Amino acid sequence: MSCVLVVDDSVEKLKGLERAAAAEGRVVLSASARDEAERILRERDIDLVVTDLALHSKSDTDGLDVLRKAAAMNIPVIVVSAYFTPANAREAMKLGAFDLIDRGTDVWEPHAMLREKIALALRYGRALRQALQPVHAPAQ
């Protein structure tokens, strides 16, 4: 069973992300801050991270820090924000974001779009982990 970590500092938005991520019986873990998300990444086997870009803390880079940590662990990350700029969207992609979802558009259907992107990212993550598995030589 897949395990998805959702990260958002807004309780209302976090609940929406949780509902979308829980489709098809997925296990969903939640964090409302960077430190909490990084602790979960260290302690649990996570298959996908969905994080808000702006976690409204002392640092404007907390969402990117979560992305950086997860990407370093070969975990696909979907970044969600209403505040994408060309610069921060480009930075997220350079850091390894699997996809970006812009909450600021009128067409954002959070549950339908996010469920589809989560399913796609989980398939990508499984393929990536399989490709990274060491190849064992046959026993002689």
Strands, helices and their partners?
Blueprint: E1 3-7, H1 11-21, E2 27-31, H2 34-43, E3 48-52, H3 62-72, E4 77-81, H4 86-94, E5 99-102, H5 110-132
Parallel strand pairs: 1-2, 1-3, 3-4, 4-5
Helix pairs in contact: 1-5, 2-3
Can you offer a commentary on this structure?
This protein is of the alpha/beta class. The protein has one domain: Response regulator (Rossmann fold), CATH 3.40.50.2300. It contains five helices and five strands, in the order βαβαβαβαβα. A five-stranded parallel beta sheet has the order 2-1-3-4-5, with helices on both faces. Helix 1 links the parallel strand 1 and strand 2. Helix 1 crosses helix 5 and helix 2 runs parallel beside helix 3. The model has no long low-confidence stretch (mean pLDDT 86).
Strand count, sense and closure of the main sheet? 5 strands, parallel
Shape by Cα distribution:
globular
Number of strands: 5
Please, how many domains?
1
Gyration radius (Cα, Å) is 15 Å
CATH topology title: Rossmann fold
Numbering strands along the chain, what is their spatial order in the largest sheet?
2-1-3-4-5
**Helical content, roughly?**
40-55%
Tell me the name of the CATH homologous superfamily: Response regulator
List its salient traits.
five-stranded parallel β-sheet; alpha/beta; 5 helices; Rossmann fold; 140 residues; globular
